[in-house]
Amino acid sequence: xxxxxxxxxxxxxxxxxxxxxxxxxxxxxxxxxxxxxxxxxxxxxxxxxxxxxxxxxxxxxxxxxxxxxxxxxxxxxxxxxxxxxxxxxxxxxxxxxxxxxxxxxxxxxxxxxxxxxxxxxxxxxxxxxxxxxxxxxxxxxxxxxxxxxxxxxxxxxxxxxxxxxxxxxxxxxxxxxxxxxxxxxxxxxxxxxxxxxxxxxxxxxxxxxxxxxxxxxxxxxxxxxxxxxxxxxxxxxxxxxxxxxxxxxxxxxxxxxxxxxxxxxxxxxxxxxxxxxxxxxxxxxxxxxxxxxxxxxxxxx
Length: 301
Fold this sequence. Notes:
Number of strands: 17
Radius of gyration: 19 Å
Order of helices and strands: HHHEHEEEEEEEEEEEEEEEE
Helix content: 10-25%
Structural class: alpha+beta
């Protein structure tokens, strides 16, 4: 998955190369000013977003015509303590399997915040169960230009199909992330985040009717077909673009839509200005007048 940020080449690279590349890039993401990150929408939508289970590419939020009504809502139940422990063990085992050996096992110290199941899912290929954990994300000091080891709070998401297979074992997302251009975004083909203005999210698989998503504590989850059997060098989910995500406000107005990575989309350019905070620290904010695609939403809100 995207423990690595490039697809595996035809000929394997020397041991440790992927890990160094990933660490260098993650360090660069956090140290870049907002202007650079806005020009790279795949990285800008989340301040620090490392999604081992598939690179969550942020794409420009195009406002389009409203989609057909979705079915739902779905019946949901919380997992019991024993069911949660079993799911956590299964998620950890799969996360460890697809993580490069020279990196520490992820999520071992994460505490489970919530685990639930869509009880009306019968298709064995559809994701029915989710686990949410909370912990610290630490960036290792590896690479040609090592930086001091740093940690920050992060959430861990893991999903399982109704057939019992882990689908997304290691999604990470950080509180305090800034969403650019839309009050919601996906972090997997069937999960994402939203801010206060969003009241409803649907996910429409290709050739099918939209599926109603469950909105819960700033995350949304949709029971759709998930990808399984990830390999340790898979960079992203090739089927991610087959799912259209739409977010609506309480009045039914369409706020955003995201049909997946669009390589032909023009880069988003947003002028920024430096601002001094009351504590004396400097930060950056979009220069007025702020274009719609440059509006920032801090998650969660």
